[in-house]
Amino acid sequence: MTERAMFMRYLPMGLFALLAAALDQVSKFLVVEHIPYGTAVPCIPGVVHLTYVQNFGAAFSFLQGHRWLFVLAFVVLVALLGLGLYKKMLPFTRLELWFLAAALGGGLGNIIDRVFRGYVVDMIAVEFISFPVFNLADCFITCGAALLLIHLVFWNKSFWKEDKHGADLS
After folding, report:
1. Annotated catalytic, 168?
2. How far apart are CA 120 and CA 113, in angstroms?
3. What is the largest CA-CA distance in the chain?
């Protein structure tokens, strides 16, 4: 596959990742502009409300104060994934690439917050269970990663083979 063909193959997924990050950033902007910090705004009473909070760590405020570690880890992960896809070492199916794009778009949304704000804006709070407040980027990361893992485990057996060069990437 030529480099141009490879670029064209991955372009829609890259644009989807950018769209996911943009949607996340728009939602965060609207929350910061319209909801005072710490205030709960009901969306579906008893189910979900919006609450503007700031998260200085990772999931569940893990590793607070290490924002540049998150940025570095994201950049390294994206570089390794890009290299793996370019060298055809990662035999992802097209569907798995869409799942990966969702997770990367969510990661990008949170990295943008870390770089420009120093923290991540969270706002979605579920009322029916005790769970930390999260954001749209977290939804993209979680759904993308979970669907990718499920598909790899149950449907893409070639991903786990030693010799990945003969795998069908369509």
Report:
1. no
2. 5
3. 55
Q: Which among 24, 122, 163, 168 is annotated as catalytic?
A: 122
Q: What is the pLDDT of residue 60?
A: 53
Q: Which residues of 56-76 are buried (b: 16+ CB within 10 A; e: fewer)?
A: eebeeeeeeeebeebeeebee
| Integer Cα distance of 165 and 53 in angstroms | 46
Tell me if residue 122 is catalytic. yes
Predicted TM-score of the model (pTM)? 0.84
Catalytically annotated residue among 24, 113, 138, 168 = 138
| DSSP assignment of 72-141 | HHHHHHHHHHHHHHHTT-S---HHHHHHHHHHHHHHHHHHHHHHHTSSEEEEEEESSS----B-HHHHHH
pLDDT digits (tens, 9 = 90+) for 41-66: 999 999 999 999 998 876 655 666 66
Q: Specify the residue for token string 């994934």.
A: 81
The SS3 assignment for 65 reads: coil
126 or 9, greater pLDDT: 126
Q: pLDDT for 77-130, tens place per residue?
A: 999 988 888 887 788 889 999 999 999 999 999 999 999 998 999 999 999 999
Give the phi and the psi of residue 46 in degrees, each rounded to 5: 80, -5
